[in-house]
Amino acid sequence: MAEAVRVLIVGAGPVGLTLAAELTRYGVPVRIVDKASARTDKSKALVLWSRSLELLERAGGVDRFLAAGIKAHGVRISNGRQLIGEVGFDQVESPYPFALMIPQNETERLLETRLEELGCRVERQVELLRFEARTDGIRATLRDAAGREEAMDADWLIGCDGAHSIVRHGLGFDFAGSTQPSDWVLADMRLDGLGVPDRLDIFWHRDGILAFFPIVGDRYRVVADLGPADGRDRRPDPKLAEVQALVDQRGPGGVRLRDPIWLSSFRINERKVEDYSAGRVFLAGDAAHIHSPAGGQGMNTGMQDAFNLAWKLALVAKGAARASLLDSYSVERSAVGDRVLRNAGRMTDVAILRNPVAQAVRNAAARIVLGLSQVQRRMSGTLTELEIAYPESPLSVAAPHAPHGGALPAAGERWLPAAGDPIGSGAAPRFAVAGPGDAAVLLSAIFPDLVDARARPAPSEDGLWLIRPDGYVGLVAGPDWQAPAERYLATIAAELGP
């Protein structure tokens, strides 16, 4: 007899596939459905940033992504003829100091292949019609391609179903925000004359921004803004000649476009829900937040929503943690969503300045600040998403007398990956212990379902660090670490029955 479905995932894009693969890896039975008949055939989101690659490594299969993409080592900004500045990625502290350029359809293919290897398949042309949330689970009504309706029960429902999410609508959540009153064009095509595709090229031309993003070989994504919208719903999709004219006008010269694969016009929406969950129903990815594509943060942010939720849900589903652990998901990821929304909006606003005086000031300032090492580090950390942290999370605790300062990781910060098995790899989510030699064995004996018995090197002899299964520091404790560590884990561990 088949095991009962614990989690119903609606939406099989990168976010839903990531969540399904993580939960399946952790032994949680899932069902993932999508109303589309097939994966997308469009390039859509183009980049996997360093932090997403680190998380994919612990999940298994990152080498496939590396083999399928190309590495971009920085961003070049010019005004069409003169270089304004560069942001490099080579110095970021990660095993993956680059942007991996890979089209979304390929990302989805690799994620779905991984999911199938784990024994779970996407059910396509299956649509969620409605659901009822209960205290002990959810009742969902699905409809297949033949029009047959099915009522099913699950313990949790996750909406990974995009900007028009039926799950979000079912919760009645407000998707607050706005649509920018400007038009943009996108072209996925082959081109000649741009040089080696090892950078993202952005041109701040006086008439608007033009950007080139390498995809693979001589294939690129070209994006340009067209200025204020003229009141129509949306501009018609551009022709090749129109995009070529924009490239000739704003680009470096000598670039020739050919063999268009995808030509489209679009407008930028910036919207977000306040809460990512209600009871046993959760939202992730575009169902919870959409924003400017500046910085390429959208898909990565959504996939990291999934990584964050998966380990918590797995621990609760398997009876190792109390349900209150799930409350931290919305707290942590909503704060990240707010930050991404702000940063992407600011990058867009800076890029589309129209006033010539403002453009001159922007360009002069950028030439200066992009030459500063601290600015380089901050910008590369933001783009690669390595600076994401959860300092305000209820799971981030600094005990009295905890070591701090310098290069020591604080509670809520990312733990720098080291050689060996990545934290969070394997068939069960466990907290890792970096501290005195006997700490991991002692804590794993008390909390066997929460703590990995393998010791990790600590950055200081005067403390102990508990690292979450997603590689963020949970607790930092001082020399008297045992009592704070036990208290911390006891607040997460499932309560014992009578």
List the helices and strands and how they pair.
Elements: E1 7-10, H1 14-25, E2 30-34, E3 47-48, H2 50-59, H3 62-68, E4 70-72, E5 74-78, E6 83-88, E7 99-101, H4 104-117, E8 122-124, E9 127-134, E10 137-143, E11 149-154, E12 156-159, H5 166-171, E13 176-179, E14 182-192, E15 200-205, E16 208-216, E17 219-228, H6 240-250, E18 256-266, E19 269-272, E20 277-278, E21 281-283, E22 289-290, H7 298-317, H8 327-351, H9 356-369, H10 373-384, E23 397-398, E24 431-434, H11 439-446, E25 451-456, E26 464-467, E27 473-477, H12 482-492
Please tell me about this protein's structure.
It is globular and about 70 Å long. The strands form 6 sheets. A 7-stranded mixed sheet has the order 6-5-15-16-17-14-18, with helices on both faces. It has 12 helices and 27 strands. The two termini are 31 Å apart. The protein has helices spanning 14-25, 50-59, 62-68, 104-117, 166-171, 240-250, 298-317, 327-351, 356-369, 373-384, 439-446, 482-492, and strands at residues 7-10, 30-34, 47-48, 70-72, 74-78, 83-88, 99-101, 122-124, 127-134, 137-143, 149-154, 156-159, 176-179, 182-192, 200-205, 208-216, 219-228, 256-266, 269-272, 277-278, 281-283, 289-290, 397-398, 431-434, 451-456, 464-467, 473-477. With 498 residues, it is of the alpha/beta class. It folds into 3 domains: 7-46 and 103-177 and 270-349, FAD/NAD(P)-binding domain (3-Layer(bba) Sandwich); 181-267, 2-Layer Sandwich (Alpha-Beta Plaits); 397-492, Glutaredoxin (3-Layer(aba) Sandwich), CATH 3.40.30.
